[in-house]
Fold these 2 entries.
Entry 1:
Amino acid sequence: MGASSVKDVARTAGVSLGTVSNVLNRPDRVSPATRAKVEKAMRELGFVRNESARQLRAGTSRTLAYVMLDASNPFFTDVAQGIESAAEAVDLSLVLCNSGNDQRRESAHLALLEQRRTQGVLVTPIDPDSAVLDEVVARGTPVVIVDRTRTDTRFCSVAVDDVLGGRLAVEHLIDRGHTRIAYIGGPYTLGQVRDRLAGAREAWAAAELPAEDLIEITIDGLYVAEGLEAGQRLAGLPASRRPTAAFCANDLVALGLLQQAISSGTRVPEGLAIVGYDDIVFAAAAAVPLTSVRQPRQELGRAAADLVLDEATNPDHEHSQVQFTPELVARASTIT
Amino acid sequence: MGASSVKDVARTAGVSLGTVSNVLNRPDRVSPATRAKVEKAMRELGFVRNESARQLRAGTSRTLAYVMLDASNPFFTDVAQGIESAAEAVDLSLVLCNSGNDQRRESAHLALLEQRRTQGVLVTPIDPDSAVLDEVVARGTPVVIVDRTRTDTRFCSVAVDDVLGGRLAVEHLIDRGHTRIAYIGGPYTLGQVRDRLAGAREAWAAAELPAEDLIEITIDGLYVAEGLEAGQRLAGLPASRRPTAAFCANDLVALGLLQQAISSGTRVPEGLAIVGYDDIVFAAAAAVPLTSVRQPRQELGRAAADLVLDEATNPDHEHSQVQFTPELVARASTIT
DNA sequence: TTGTAGGCGTTATCAA
DNA sequence: TTGATAACGCCTACAA
C-alpha cells in the first residue's frame, strides 16, 4: 500500500493500463461498467496519482509559490490571501514559503521551487536587486516581486507608492498642527524605510518646516520590540527636542511605540500622536486605534498573481511595474 | 533554455550522461577537469535539476507540509516556525498551505500533498475526526494533528491541555476577586472552545460559585471582529448581570473586546478584567497588555515535526498523543 | 471502447 | 574514471 501505481490498478481491475489512465483523464471514453471496476480497484489499493510522474511527463506543475519575507507579519499573510484567491480562480494551488528575513532560507526556497518547475514564483525578497533573482528568471522560472521595487525594469513587480504613503502620513500630522515629529524606521537597507522617509521629507519641506524638526529614529527592524525600544529613546529626549508625533515605518513598530507610550503615562494622541503603516487588522483593534497608511494588501497579491500567470503563459508578456496608491486611514491615535 | 536536462549538459560538455549524474551526486568520482567542464556546461545552459524526475526515481520527497487552519492568526505562524526549525535540522524543507477554515481547501491541499508523496503532513484540521484524515493515512502519508485532538488514538497529535488552560484562566480571575464573569467563545464545534469552557467551569465549581454567574457569550468565530461585537453585547447586559471580567477563547477575541471596552469608556481592568488565550505577540503589545494563557507554540510545532518524522521513517512507530501544559501570563488587563 | 509502446529526466548498476 | 542502459509512474498517440 501507499505505493500502488496505475499498473497495479490495471492488474487488479483486470483491464489494461491505458484504460486506467482513461478513467483518470477521460472518464467519458470508458464504459460505465469498466469504470466502476477500475474505481473499485483504486479504492481497494489506496491508489494515489503520482504527481511527480505526471509532472515529469507534462513538464510543468500546477502550483504557484509565494516566498514571504516574514510570515508572522499579518501584512504578508493578507497579501498571501490575495494571491490565493487569484490562484484558486485559475485552479492553481498556492504554496507558501517563509524566508523569515534570512537570505539563506530565501535562496534555498527559490532553488527548490525552481527544481519543482513551479509555474510561477512570487517573492518579497530580502534584497530586490539581488542577482539570485535574475538567475532564477534566466533559468526559466517566472518571478514577480511583491511589495518591493527594483532599480531596473527586468522584472514584473507590484508595489505601493511608499513615497506618497510617507507624504500622506506626514501631511496628516502637519494638518493636525504638529511641528516637531519623529520618523521611526530601519534598517535603511529596506527600500520602504527609505521611501517612506523621503515622502515624509517632501511633505515637511512643502510645509516649509525646518529639516531638523523631522527627527529620525533608526531601529534595527520593523518589529514590535523595536517600537517599544524607540519609545524609550523618544522619552529620553530633552523636552525641547521631544516630538509631539511619530510616524512609524510600519504598524508593528507603531504598536510597540503605542504600548510604551501608554504604559509610561503618555496620552495618545494628546502627548504623542502616532501614525503607522500597513493598516494591519491589529491597527484598528489597538486600544487606541491607530491611524495608519493602508496598502491594498489583497489587491497587491491578486495583481502579482495575475502578472506571474501572464509571464508564465503569454509568450508576448512584457514586464510591468504596477504601483498601487496608499490611503491614509485616520483614527484615534492622531485625532482627539 | 529553462528546460535543459542532464542529457543536454552531457552533450555540450562532451561527456556521457552518467558522468553528469556523477558530478551531481558523487563529485569525488569525477576528475577535476571533467567536473569543471560539466559545471561550466551546466551554468551555460542554466541547468536546473528536475525534482519531479528525481522524486519519481527516489520514490519519496524531501519536504514536509503544514496545512494551517488560519494563516492570519499569529498563533499558527508561530507553530509553523517551530515546525520549520525542526525540519531544517533534518534538512527537509517545509511548505505551508492555508485552509483558511475552508473544508474544501483543506481537502484539496491534502490531496495534492499526497500526490506529491510529501514525507509527512502536519495539519490543524477543521474537523479532527474527519474521515478524510483517515483516508490519507490509509493511503500511506504520515499525518500528525496539530493543536487539536481526536477522540480515537489512531493518530499522532500534539496539543495543549485546554481544559487546564481554561481552569488557569478562571482560577486567576477568582483569585482576583471576581464573582461574575463571562466566557466568550464559539463556535462550539471547535474542541478548544468546548474544552476551555469545561476548564472554566471546573474552576468555577471548585470555588463553589453559582453556575449562572459564569455567563456564556457565544460568537461565530475566533476573530477580532467577534470580540468587538461581544463587547457590545456585554455592555448591553443589565448592570446586575454584567460581569466584571471576561475570559476569551483566544487573543484575537480578547483584543477585540479590549478595544470595544476602552473605546466605550470602560476601564480595563477596573471596569472589566480580560483574559485571553494563546499569548500571541500582540497580546503583550496591546495598549493594556493582555493577561493570557500561553501555549508553547514553537515547541508544539517542533514536537509535531518530530512525530511525523518518526512516523515516516521508523517502522516501529507508535502513535502518541502529546499534550503540553499551558501557563498563565498575568499582565495589566487583570492586575491593577 | 480497449490495449500497446515510447518517452519525460534522473539515478544506479554494470561493463568497459 | 567513464559510458551505456534500465527503471521509476504516467500520459498520449496510435493500433486493434
Note: Chain B has three domains: 6-49, 62-160+297-324, 162-295.
Entry 2:
Amino acid sequence: MVIDMRNPEVLEAHETADITRLMKILADENRLKIIACLASGEKCVCQLTDAIDISQNLMSHHLKALKAEGLVMDERRGRWVYYSLRDKRINSFLGQAGKFCNCSKPVCP
Amino acid sequence: MVIDMRNPEVLEAHETADITRLMKILADENRLKIIACLASGEKCVCQLTDAIDISQNLMSHHLKALKAEGLVMDERRGRWVYYSLRDKRINSFLGQAGKFCNCSKPVCP
DNA sequence: TAGGCGTATCAATGGTGATTGATATGAGAA
DNA sequence: TTCTCATATCAATCACCATTGATACGCCTA
C-alpha cells in the first residue's frame, strides 16, 4: 500500500524542477493556441496549421514538444496524423491562469 | 452593470497572449522556489537568498520580474525589503500543475 | 512503380532571457 | 558625516529555443 502524502494544494520544493519543465513547454503562445484548438477535439496537423497561422514544420516542432511532455498524443490514420489532448483538464488549468494575469495593470487612483 | 462572459473553465484564444506572458514568468525554477518560499509568509530578500542558493543580484532580478507581473509585492521596512505573494492562490495553482507533469514517463507494458 | 500529398527532421539563424561581476542607492549605526 | 549593510541596477556574456528553408519519410493513388 502506498500513501500519497503530496498535498495538491501546495507547490512543494521537490516538485519545482518538474513544474518548471511543464511551464517552459506552456510558455509559448503557439503551443497554447494548439492546446486551445485541441480542446474541441482531435485535429490533424493540417487542420491545426489552418487554424493557427504558422508554418507546417514549426507546427510539427511544437507538436513534438507537447507530445514529449505528454500533453498531447498522436495517431496516424492513413496519410494524416491526428493529435488530441491527453488530459483535457489542461484546458481548465490554463483557464485558471487568467486569474493571475494583469495583476499589474495600472489602476485608477 | 457588467456581465462577465468569460468561462474560467476554458482557455480562450484571446487570452493566450496574457497567459503566455504569465507562463514565461513562471517557467524558471528559481522563481518557482521563490513563490514556494513565500507561501509560508513574507520574507526579506536576505531570507530568500539564504533559502534559495542564488546570488543576491540574481534574486533581485527575479523578484523584480515577479513584481512586474503582479505576482509579488514588496514593502521596505528600514534597511530590509519584505516580499510577499499578492495572491496566495498562485501556490495551489502551481500545485495543480503537478498533475500534468511526467505524463510521458515510461510505463511498464 | 512513380508521383503527389501530409508530416517529420535537419541545420542554421536570431532573439530572448538567465546569469555574473561590478557598481550604485538608500537607510541605519557609529 | 562617514561607514556599513541590504538591496537594486547596469553592462556583458552565455545558453537555450523559436523560427526558417531545405530536405526526408511514409502513405495513398494512378
Note: Residues 104-109 of chain A have pLDDT under 50 and may be disordered.
